[in-house]
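Could you help me review a protein record that somebody else here produced? This is what I was given.
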Amino acid sequence: MKNQKRSLVISTMFQQAGHATGIALGWGLGIALIIYLFGLIISRNLESFLVSLQALPDIASSILNVLLMAIFLVTPYTDFKWAIQNGISRKTLWQGRILSLFLMTLVVWFIAQLVDLMNAPFDLVSAWHSLLSYFSLSLTMVAIGNGFALLNRRWKWIVGIGLPMACLVLLMMLAYSLVGLIPALSASGVFKSIIISNVTGWVILVIYLIIVYTLARFFNNKIQLRRD
């Protein structure tokens, strides 16, 4: 029964994503095509028009990238209400959503790689880094979306505007405070070796993913039905 409900969550999310993708691609590619046709009518340059059409796969890939992030950013509360109505627990909902995230990310990443092959040869290192970036961004959107699902409309506006500004101020303060430390840190051989080491980047990435995953799971378990 639990596996069936988890599969139901995954299939429902893919149906929602497919519906949103169809609408977004229809509008996005349709508008781009209309613009290209207007350009053809004005310039009457068929060669330029055909060259412009080659940009459609890149546009489609960009639309899919945006949708991948948007879906997990805006749907957590809606998915939670749907799960409650269908007798699905938070744990099962979380499992279904996180599996959907990985599957959707793989699909969008794979399509992006196919589009990139039209412009450049396949590069395994770049593809691997790109996949990590996709998963990191997707998981970040899940954490943010689940966090916003805890808030009512007023607090969404307050946090949505205030939190980025607070982060910007903190970053500026941190950068200002580090100005005096840069000469001393630059003179430290140990610090240089840490910064240059490839292991440092991987450690930071792993720590970041653990934190984001933990926050996303915590927020998921705290979502409640509310009156907006």
Summary: The chain has a mean pLDDT of 83. Residues 22 and 28 are 10 Å apart (CA to CA). The radius of gyration is 22 Å. The first helix runs from residue 2 to 43.
